[in-house]
Structures are given as C-alpha cells and as structure tokens.
Design a protein that fits this description.
CATH topology of the largest domain: Helix Hairpins
CATH superfamily of the largest domain: DnaJ domain
Number of domains: 2
Mean pLDDT: 89
Strand content: under 5%
CATH class of the largest domain: Mainly Alpha
Distance between the termini: 65 Å
Number of helices: 7
Order of helices and strands: HHHHHHH
Low-confidence stretches: none
CATH architecture of the largest domain: Orthogonal Bundle
Radius of gyration: 24 Å
Shape: elongated
C-alpha cells in the first residue's frame, strides 16, 4: 500500500510532486521519518547526481509548496507544514548538489558513519611524513635549499590528492552501479575521505610555510 494523506487519508501520487501535496484535498504533507534527501527530491540514491535535473525538481517543488498557496487552505496548519517541508527540501538540495556534503550524508544515511563522529582519525602516509619532516628541517637549517624541496613536496602532495580523488570516484561509481557490496565499498570510501582530510590539513600547513618563506 502506498503513502496516504495525513489529513484525508487519500492516496498520494507516486510522481515527484505527488508526495508533497495530496491530490485529493490539496494538503501539504509533513515530512515523514521514512523520507530522506533523495526521496524528497525524487533523486536516485547515489553519488552521481544530475545538477540540472536536481535544480529543475527543486524549483518545481518550491512552486508546489509555496506557503502563499496554503494561506487560505482548509486547515490552519497547512501553511506551517508547507514551510517546514520546503525547508527540508532546501536542505536536501543544498546537500545533494555539493559533492563533499552528499558523500558525508550518504555515508551517514547508510549507517557507515554517525552524526557527530570524530573526524580525521587516520595515519599520515610514511613517505609523506618523512618528506614533510625533511622539509621543515631544511627551512630551519638551509632556507635557500628549502624552496626547491618545498616545490618537490608540493608536487608530491598534489599527486597524492589527485590519486586519492580518483580512487574515491571509482568506488562511488561502483556503489552507484550496484555491482558490489554497498557497505563494503562505502567503508573504503570513508577511509579514503579520512585520508583526504589529512592531506587537506597538510596543504594548509604548506601554505603557511610558503607564507613564512615569502613564496
């Protein structure tokens, strides 16, 4: 049995707009516990989203749920519900159109990570750590030579970041294709995301070091 209207009990349409407003009595529907950001926008659950399609759906839903449409509705709560539902749709749109936020949300939605989990628990790659400590020593002992070492380290860091992004993209494609164990591949993505956070932290430290050297 499909979803029904919380006001009149009528069946809600299965279309992308039908889940938001009852076709029988015209009432906007409260966000239910079973709805997530993907279902709110009628989007497939996955990492690869069509930005143009998401935008079209978002504006179609926005027009359908505009509070002014329910100001004189059959129930005083309709306008409030439309505002609450539109807020949820807006959060969904802001999340699914940004790759990092979508990835974090999907990992949480699938139970791989939990809201409030401590982030960044990962070990620095040994070879990168050695280069970084050598670079810091060079800055202290031989600033002139440190510039060349810094360039080498920066190229290595960018390559590792690029390689990591490519691996994440590959695993995300596998998840979307549904050809692998979804939780297993999500855990691989989670590990790489944590590694990426460390690399981004190193990029920030490198920028500070370049500023100190006047580069």
């Amino acid at each position: 049995m499909g979803a029904t209207c919380v006001f009149c009990g009528g069946a809600l349409a299965s279309s992308e707009l039908g889940r938001h407003v009852c076709p029988k009595c015209g009432a906007p529907q409260p966000v239910s516990p079973g709805e997530d950001y993907f279902s709110l926008l009628g989007a497939p659950r996955g990492f690869r989203q069509d930005p143009g399609e998401l935008e079209r759906r978002f504006y179609d839903i926005s027009r359908t749920l505009h509070p002014d449409r329910f100001a004189a509705g059959g129930d005083a709560k309709w306008k409030v519900i439309s505002v609450e539902r539109m807020s949820a749709v807006n959060r969904a749109y802001q999340t699914l159109t940004k790759a990092d936020r979508l990835r974090e949300y999907l990992l949480e939605l699938e139970g791989v990570t939990k809201a409030g989990d401590e982030k960044g628990k990962t070990a620095i790659p040994a070879e990168l750590a050695e280069e970084w400590f050598e670079l810091q020593d060079a800055v202290m002992e031989d600033p002139a030579n440190a510039v060349a070492k810094l360039g080498t380290f920066e190229r290595d860091l960018r390559k590792k970041s690029g390689d990591l992004a490519a691996r994440i993209s590959g695993f995300e494609r596998e998840y979307d294709e549904g050809t692998v164990d979804p939780i297993g591949v999500l855990r691989k993505i989670e590990k790489l995301v944590l590694d990426g956070q460390y690399l981004k932290s190193m990029e920030r430290d490198l920028l500070k070091l370049k500023t100190r050297l006047g580069i």
